[in-house]
Amino acid sequence: MKNEYILPNKEAARRRTKEESQVKRELFALSSDIKDLGIGKNYFIRTYGCQANFHDSEVIAGILEDMGFKSTDHLEEADVILLNTCAIRQNAEEKVLGELGNLKKLKRANPDLIIAMSGCMAQEEGMVKTILMKYPQVDLVFGTHNIYNLPKLLYQAMLAKEKTIEVFSKEGDIVESLPYKRDNRHKAWVNISYGCDKFCSYCIVPYTRGKERSRHMEDILDEVKELKEAGYKEVTLLGQNVNSYGLDLKMEHGFADLLEEVAKIGIPRVRFMTPYPSNFDDEAIEVCSHYKNIMPTIHLPLQSGSDKILFKMNRRYDSEAYRTVFDKIKAKIEGCAFTTDIIVGFPNESDEDFKKTLEMVDYCKYDNAYTFIYSKREGTPAAAIEDHIPMHVKEERLQILNAKIAHYANLNNQRFQDQIVEVLVDGASKRDKNVFSGYTPESKLVNFTGDCKVGEIRKVQITKAKSFSLDGKVIEE
Ligand code: 5AD
Ligand code: SF4
User: Fold this and answer.
1) Which atom of ligand 1 sits closest to the CA of residue 373?
2) Which of 47, 88, 167 to mutate to test the pocket of ligand 2 (most atoms within 8 A of CB)?
């Protein structure tokens, strides 16, 4: 009998109910026929997009290794190639489609090769139709809610040799029992919540990652305790909107309470990504300012400085509310570094609107920013707006904005010139094997020389402050 596809569904992805999400602890189990499927075989994963996706790849790698597969860095040696994809902007999708095109050659040379696709692109109804029609080399597509079922799906694709597609568009459960293989032995990602209920008018994430659902606090704390015992130096709490943590579990100050409990475990460095400006309550700010192991870096997405555009984006704050939160954090957290996300060229953004964004950058003087040209995402409300702004205007705005960001990045970094900073040693720098690199509490990238080991937190004297990094040397103690 022909394998039945479970395809993504736009309407179902949009739906939200008031029902609490189910925590599933028993979903993941390997039957004996599946358990050894990967013995003697290699897998290769390429990840696109955000930290949530990178952490999903760690889970997928954990599952594959439980099945006996070994990781390889060489595409040619792989028996399973997985692209864990991102749908946030069109160029992210184009990269993946280009890569799928390149993989065709490998598939032709080795018909037993399994090419799989997961992540946010797999959650898009139109995209999966395109894959079915134009990319026959793809054997397996599974969604962000289907990771737990990977062993069964892979079995079907490998042994039954059938194209396999399983993408649920439901609101989402929380699956607790999955294994993972962490990429880093000193720094770890810890999911605190999944999904997003904000529905910003430009954004595809609420459709690809489902309803906002918080993990239970005990599960998160147990994970952080295990990480501490294993010698981890840093955890980053992850969620699309970390500071709405616990709202679905009827907690009043869920994020503040969670952050405090995590800080008390005593791991040397605690970070979190990404807070939503208007969900940042005084309690959470207070906790951040009180615990020295909560790092003084706040990523506070602005998106636009224009109230008109913020309203059209369905962001739930205006420029004044943003400034108020920003000011409170700045006043309370000593030496706090700020980063942000900004979109230019949202449909019909005027010169005046863009000027307001620049004014906000002048006000906040960010340490750094991720800046993007608006990208139309099919199925989002903004995609229906007729846009009259030509692309060259958007590109010019991006350049102007980036120059301003670079100016403040440099200005902010100058405060570290000749200072002594604490750096968590990541490893050899990308450019020079004899130079180490790592990050300060403020998330400043430092390239430095001296005698040290990966995973240590060391004092480094800064010798040169540049726009986007610092140079220095280790202080011998
Ligand atoms: N176009 C451009 N940028 C986008 N982002 C999200 N959706 C879009 C889009 N359609 C940006 C936002 C968000 C970051 C992760 O990506 O700035 O904060
Ligand atoms: Fe992450 Fe968003 Fe990309 Fe999905 S679309 S992988 S949530 S950045």
Assistant:
1) 2
2) 88
CA distances in angstroms from 355 to 113, 200, 264, 310, listed in the order given: 52, 22, 43, 14
Tell me whether residue 467 is exposed, middle or buried, using C-beta atoms within 10 angstroms of its C-beta: 0 to 12, 13 to 18, 19 or more.
middle
Sole residue written with tokens 């997928």: 60
Q: What is the pLDDT of residue 16?
A: 86
Closest to 302 (Cα-Cα) out of 382, 356, 230, 233: 356
Fold of 174-411: pyruvate-formate lyase- activating enzyme (3.80.30)
Residue 464's Cα: distance from chain center in Å? Answer: 30
pLDDT digits (tens, 9 = 90+) for 101-146: 999 999 999 999 999 999 999 999 999 999 999 999 999 999 999 9
Residues near ligand 1 (Cβ within 6 A) = 88-89, 202-203, 301, 303, 341, 343, 372, 374-375, 377
Residue 298 and residue 263 in contact, taking contact as beta carbons nearer than 8 Å: no
Distance between Cα 428 and ligand 2 center (Å): 28
Q: Residue 122, Cα to own-chain centre: how many angstroms?
A: 17
Mutation pick for ligand 1 pocket among 341, 370, 387, 405 (CB with most ligand atoms within 8 Å):
341
Tokens coding 351: 């010169």
Measured at the CA of 175, the angle between CA 11 and CA 30, to 5 degrees, comes to: 115
Alpha-helical regions (H) of 281-350? 282-290, 307-312, 319-332
What's the pTM? 0.95
How far is ligand 1, taken at its centre, from the CA of residue 202, in Å?
A: 7
Output the six-digit token pair for 414. 């100058």
CATH classification code of 417-474: 2.40.50.140
Task: Provide the strand spans (E) within 91-144.
Answer: 114-119, 140-142
CATH fourth-level superfamily of 10-166? Methylthiotransferase, N-terminal domain (3.40.50.12160)
Closest ligand to residue 205's CA: 2
User: Which residues does 62 contact at the CB level (< 8 Å), separation at least 6?
Assistant: 178, 179, 180, 181
